[in-house]
Structures are given as structure tokens and as C-alpha cells.
Amino acid sequence: MATCQMSEPPVLAMAYPILTVREITARPVVPKLKRLVVARIATITDWPLILIDLLTEEGIVGRSYLEPYIVKSMSYLVPALKDLGALLKGRPVAPIELFDAARKSRFTSSATKACR
Q1: 49 contacts 67 by C-beta, under 8 angstroms
Q2: Which sign, positive or negative, has the C-alpha torsion 77, 50, 61, 15?
Q3: Are 60 and 23 in contact (CB under 8 A)?
Q4: CA 96 to CA 81: how far, in whole Å?
Q5: The CATH number, out of the four listed (3.30.390.10, 3.90.1150.10, 3.40.50.2000, 3.10.150.10), of the domain defined by the range 21-114
Q6: pLDDT by residue for the chain (116 residues), tens digit each?
Q7: Per-residue b/e over 1-40, b at no fewer than 16 CB within 10 Å?
Q8: Residue 51's beta-bridge partner residues?
């Protein structure tokens, strides 16, 4: 019967700065497309985007975006993102311990399955 030796992935000895959420900003924009998107159900002439910035007390800014497809949905999503920012204000951005635990759990479970 073959045995499988699993080893943990190497752990980098790095100090991660703790980042604290200051605010989340969300800006709706609807740029016109230079090339139209032609589909069976519609011709799309503009593309709604919500530009998201996560600002930290330490001066780091994370940027992202959502593409909601429907312009009207932006009027619901932007306030929800602002409420989320108010909820997260003063909290750590992402506890690295949770990330490491999730990564190790995923590695262990996939490695265990490979050894069966």
C-alpha cells in the first residue's frame, strides 16, 4: 500500500502591515462605446461602470470596478457600497491570518484528495 507524504507549502517570513479601512467611495460612470456591442436581444451603445476606491488610514488605496450591465441598477449598488464602507470603517482590510488559514485548508484538502 502506497503512502503519501504531504508537506506544508513554504511560509514566507514577512511582516504584513495592518491596513485599516478609512472609507469606500463608489462613482458611477457610463462611457459611450466606440464600437457597439450587437447582440440578438439588444445593441449596447454605452457601458455602465462603478469605480470603487478603498481608502485606508495608512494611505494605501485599492481600486476596483463593477460592470452592472444595466444603468438603473447603479442607483441601488452605489448606496449599498457606501453603506458597506460605513460598516467597515475602522476595521482591518483583510486579516492575513484568515487568508493563510484558507490557503492552508485549500492546499491540505486538495493534496489529501490527490493521495487517495
Answers
A1: yes
A2: positive
A3: no
A4: 23
A5: 3.30.390.10
A6: 555 565 665 655 556 678 899 999 999 999 999 999 999 988 989 999 999 999 999 999 999 999 998 999 999 999 999 999 999 899 888 766 666 777 777 655 555 555 55
A7: eeeeeeeeeeeeeeeeeebebbebebebeeeeeeeeeeee
A8: 27, 65
Side chain identity at residue 46, one-letter code: D
CA distance linking residue 69 with residue 67, whole number of Å: 6
Q: pTM here?
A: 0.67
Provide CB contacts within 8 A for 71, sequence distance 6+: 30, 46, 48
81/73 Cα distance (integer angstroms): 12
Ordered alpha helix ranges (H), the chain: 74-88, 96-114
